[in-house]
Automatic annotation (TrEMBL):
This is Helicase ATP-binding domain-containing protein. Keywords: ATP-binding, Chromatin regulator, DNA-binding, Helicase, Hydrolase, Nucleotide-binding, Nucleus. It comes from Ananas comosus var. bracteatus. Residues 1-117 form the Helicase ATP-binding domain. It is found in: Nucleus.
């Protein structure tokens, strides 16, 4: 949070910055007069405090709602996602280095948060993208390419991607080294038990690896 304050002071020195943290009493003091126009330009806080003080944050009309580390709202069933979704804001911007971690449906959570009127249906998104992508495990290259191209075409207008080499010229190039680690006897036994389980076998037989 303090890093964001430092960056605003560096690049936008004319902005009035409200760094929202502290005890309940201190936060209440910081909110005095904050509904007045131009009482501040930017409010910097944490996810925890936003959820904790969500009632007062919902009363204010925000021009922009900008979430750093936006993958922290990837779960659409979480209290965090549902609370922030109901904030009154004209525009929303999500910042993240990992928009997709474990499941393609995490991406729907982010896109629905940004544009609920465009990305409305969770099930339609799943039918459109997630199920065909399960075929990747089977090496269906033609289907896979069509699905990936479709996904890129849909998302391209809404995503601005920046690589480290684009913004930090002094960083050296990244080199990947693959190191194979042998399983211990216990790890191999656990792995074989997992593969042999009826649930795992049923999932592999169904080819629906995303559930």
């Amino acid at each position: 949070m303090l890093n964001w304050e430092t960056e605003f002071l560096k690049w936008c020195p004319a902005f009035k910055i409200l760094t929202y943290f502290g005890s309940a009493k201190e936060r209440k003091h910081k909110r005095q007069g904050w509904l007045k126009p131009n009482s501040f330009h930017v409010c910097i806080t944490t996810y925890r405090l936003v959820i904790q003080d969500s009632k007062v944050f919902k009363r204010k009309k925000w021009k922009y709602l900008i979430l750093d580390e936006a993958h922290l709202i990837k779960n659409w069933k979480s209290q965090r996602w549902q609370t922030l979704l109901n904030f009154n804001s004209k525009r929303r911007i999500l910042l993240t280095g990992t928009p997709l971690q474990n499941d393609l449906m995490e991406l729907w959570s982010l896109m629905h948060f940004l544009m609920p009127h465009i990305f409305q249906s969770h099930q339609e998104f799943k039918d459109w993208f997630s199920k065909p992508i399960s075929g990747m495990v089977e090496g269906q290259e033609k289907v896979n390419k069509e699905v990936v191209d479709r996904l890129h075409n849909v998302l391209r207008p809404f995503i601005l991607r920046r690589l480290k080499r684009d913004v930090e010229k002094q960083l050296p190039k990244k080199h990947e080294h693959v190191i194979y680690c042998r399983l211990s006897r216990r790890q191999r036994n656990l792995y074989e038990d997992f593969i042999a389980s009826s649930e795992t076998q049923a999932t592999l037989a169904s080819t629906n690896y995303f559930g």
